[in-house]
Design goal:
Layout lengths: L1 H38 L6 H21 L10 H29 L4 H23 L12 E3 L1 H8 L7 E2 H23 L1 H11 L1 H6 L4 H26 L4 H6 L1 H11 L4 H19 L3 H7 L18 H15 L11
Antiparallel strand pairs: 1-2
Length: 336
């Protein structure tokens, strides 16, 4: 029975939260890797792009809630999500037209575009804070749990309860649908194949009659959708605070690089690697150890490798190790 309680505790505090967090990071990393693979630069504004898309989604969520519009047991934010995607897409297309198009025309080296994206990042950061403020915003509604720890204990008679939040289940379902649609689009549609060809060999793609501006526009639209979905799912599962999304840039980039920058499959794998690493290293293992070890060997302290305050340091350490020993990542990237 103690072993079952240990497994339940592991599921409750490590595996389920890490899986949901990994799906959110994977969606964010997909946006980063698409921009790198197709537009050929690392977009440091991606975290704040997620924040902007989520901000628009939150505003529409509040609007619908004030009008009495709901989605039953599901969060109202799912209804507002298309409006957030549209607002984020409009911002990205305007930014590309005003900023990035000039540097593409000048054939600027990637490092220049990286520096430019840092400037865009600060503008987005200020814009989000101006619109929604700096405080933590909670916009989740509907049913909070699919199953609560108390109900689980009553059903099973175990000492340890298992809680599955509705936002965690929604994250996994929405992320799976978004990834499936993305891979279908890249592999089955003419535009998706054009994007892959443009990524593999830009000069040959242009000679084949592919319109580069159309490829760029579609890329930004997909990135807007991925960023808004990732940001909204993260905000629903935890909470929304603009500075948190700025901090998320590190684990998102770490996910993309660990998986192989430019590889969509690698971005997904990297997201889960980073998520599981962060959660497992910062989790206090005392409870699980207390179930599986004899009382004489059970730890007296929290058995925590690092405090949760150092969660992002785990991403940084993994990023450094990967860049030193396997810079191409788990899956060799540099192309979509």
């Amino acid at each position: 029975m103690d072993l079952i309680n240990a497994i339940v505790a592991l599921l409750n505090f490590v595996l389920i939260p890490a899986t949901a967090y990994g799906a959110q990071l994977a969606l964010g990393a997909l946006g980063v890797t698409l921009i790198y693979g197709i537009l050929r630069f690392s977009n440091f504004a991606h975290g704040d792009t997620m924040a902007f898309g989520t901000t628009i989604t939150i505003l529409f969520t509040w609007l619908f809630q004030s009008m009495g519009i709901s989605f039953g047991p599901l969060p109202t934010a799912l209804i507002a999500l298309p409006f957030g995607i549209a607002g984020c897409a409009l911002l990205l297309l305007m930014t590309d037209r005003v900023v990035f198009r000039f540097y593409r025309a000048q054939k600027a080296v990637p490092v220049i575009l990286v520096i430019v994206s840092m400037g865009v990042m600060f503008v987005y950061n200020g814009l989000v804070r101006f619109i929604i403020g700096v405080d933590t915003q909670r916009f989740a509604d509907g049913e909070r749990f699919i199953i609560s720890a108390r109900d689980f204990k009553e059903m099973t008679g175990l000492d340890e309860g298992l809680a599955l939040k509705s936002t965690q289940a929604i994250t996994l379902v929405v992320a799976a649908v978004a990834v499936a649609l993305l891979f279908w689009f890249l592999n089955r549609t003419r535009t998706g194949k054009s994007m892959r060809a443009f990524s593999d060999n830009e000069d040959l793609a242009l000679l084949s009659g592919i319109n580069p501006e159309r490829v760029v526009m579609v890329t930004w639209l997909i990135v807007a959708a991925l960023a808004t979905i990732a940001g909204t799912l993260y905000g629903l599962d935890k909470s929304f605070k603009p500075f948190t999304y700025f901090q998320l840039l590190l684990p998102i980039f770490a996910s993309a690089i660990v998986g192989g920058l430019g590889s969509p499959v690698g971005a997904i794998a990297g997201g889960f690697v980073i998520a599981y690493s962060e959660v497992m290293i910062t989790y206090a293992w005392k409870k699980v150890a207390g179930y599986v070890l004899p009382e004489s060997l059970a730890p007296d302290n929290l058995a925590q490798l690092l405090s949760t305050d150092y969660k992002f340091a785990v991403s940084f350490a993994i990023l450094v190790v990967v860049l030193l020993f396997k810079p191409t990542g788990l899956f060799k990237g540099k192309s979509v």
